[in-house]
Design goal:
It is a single chain. It contains six helices and eight strands. The chain is of the alpha+beta class. Strands 7-6-1-3-2-8 form a six-stranded mixed β-sheet, with helices on one face. Strands 4-5 form a two-stranded antiparallel sheet. The protein is globular, with a radius of gyration of 16 Å.
Length: 215
């Protein structure tokens, strides 16, 4: 499947996408995490599960209240939630900035406001849900860096929102792409992202990952 697939962000070549000028120090932590919204969580989850240093990914909801944190309600676009993934990672292997680079270059198109492709609504917004001011600062600086460099034809519209709570999605959403590799949506949307991930971050993938499988 072509990596273009009507997803404009996937057409930005590797050579044009810079590393973040600022990053978080690894410190002595064995695990950190960040919650990211980039459209359908099935596809974003598949991308990050393949990245070396990522220790776990859980699909869920953020930005709204607990009483409406379920798929049927969130799909209405009226709850304030975004579909998100909670990415846990070993900062000794992959940095916060590297996670953001994958997110903003491969996992979704950060120039689309309240949509990803044909998925439309605030629940599909591009968002970084930060827990600390340091996370916010690095993300702000990187978005500013990408916009100043004109990496995309349109500006990055990713919102920065404080993480109030993360609500795990229903079990059938977890690891969805790997369990349903031939589902039409996965083949049309997730597969091109995985191809771009292999092409762009081949040296940053988990050992043994070849890209022949979704995850």
């Amino acid at each position: 499947m072509s990596t273009s697939c009507n997803i404009p962000g996937l057409n930005v070549p590797k050579s044009r996408f810079p590393d973040p000028e600022h990053d978080l120090p690894a410190g002595d932590s064995s695990e950190q995490h960040v919650v990211l919204g980039g459209g359908c969580f099935w596809c974003v989850e598949a991308v990050f599960l393949a990245v070396n240093g990522v220790t776990g990914v859980e699909s869920g909801y953020a930005g709204g209240s607990a009483d409406t944190a379920n798929y049927e309600a969130v799909c209405s676009g009226q709850t304030g939630h975004a579909e998100v993934v909670d990415v846990r990672y070993d900062p000794q292997t992959v940095s916060f900035g590297e996670i953001l680079k994958v997110f903003l270059s491969v996992a979704h198109d950060p120039t689309q406001l309240n949509r990803q492709g044909n998925d439309r609504g605030t629940q599909y917004r591009s968002a970084i849900f930060y827990e600390t001011e340091d996370q916010k600062r690095v993300a702000e600086d990187y978005i500013r860096q990408l916009n100043a460099a004109g990496i995309y034809d349109d500006p990055v519209v990713t919102s920065l929102e404080p993480l109030e709570a993360f609500y795990p999605a229903e079990e059938y959403h977890q690891n969805f792409a790997a369990r349903n590799p031939y589902q039409p949506y996965i083949m049309a949307v997730a597969a091109p992202k995985m191809e771009k991930l292999v092409d762009t971050f081949g040296d940053r993938l988990k050992p043994g990952y070849t890209g022949n499988d979704i995850a």
